[in-house]
Amino acid sequence: xxALDQFSIQSLFSDEKNLFxxxxxxxxxxxxxYFGWIHPxxxxxxxxxxxPNHGRLKGVKLQRQKNRRVKSRSEMCSWxxxxxxxxxxxxxSVEVKGSDGRRNLGNLICKDLDCSSRIxxxxxxxxxxxxIIYEPARIWRMKxxxxxxxxxxxxx
Length: 156
Ligand SMILES: [Zn+2]
Prior knowledge:
alpha+beta, binds zinc ion
């Protein structure tokens, strides 16, 4: 994706008071399909991506809940299909726009919103499930999954 700066990120979340934006000085933007981060309180996450409809940047706020499973077991991220050994995913939900907060959509996603690094090698080799499809196909599949989910939430 194209490089972002603090100002452009803040302008996408103008409704947020005291928006936390992480240090982006070392971010390698070419290796990202979306830019995601978690608020220090751990309860909300933010993603910035290019809209597949018009190519402009979109900012989406997500609510994050810890996975409440008692036993640890492997979990797959529904966006990047990375299979974590345990505690690698979290439950994220997005409010359906236009529903006045009455409807939310949930999804199990990498808990730190760092899918882009995970579908690339060498980090990908840590996945419990090794796939034979190559990197561009994994990227394409991830974008499709993200776009579908956000479209259902009228957020893209
Ligand atoms: Zn992921």
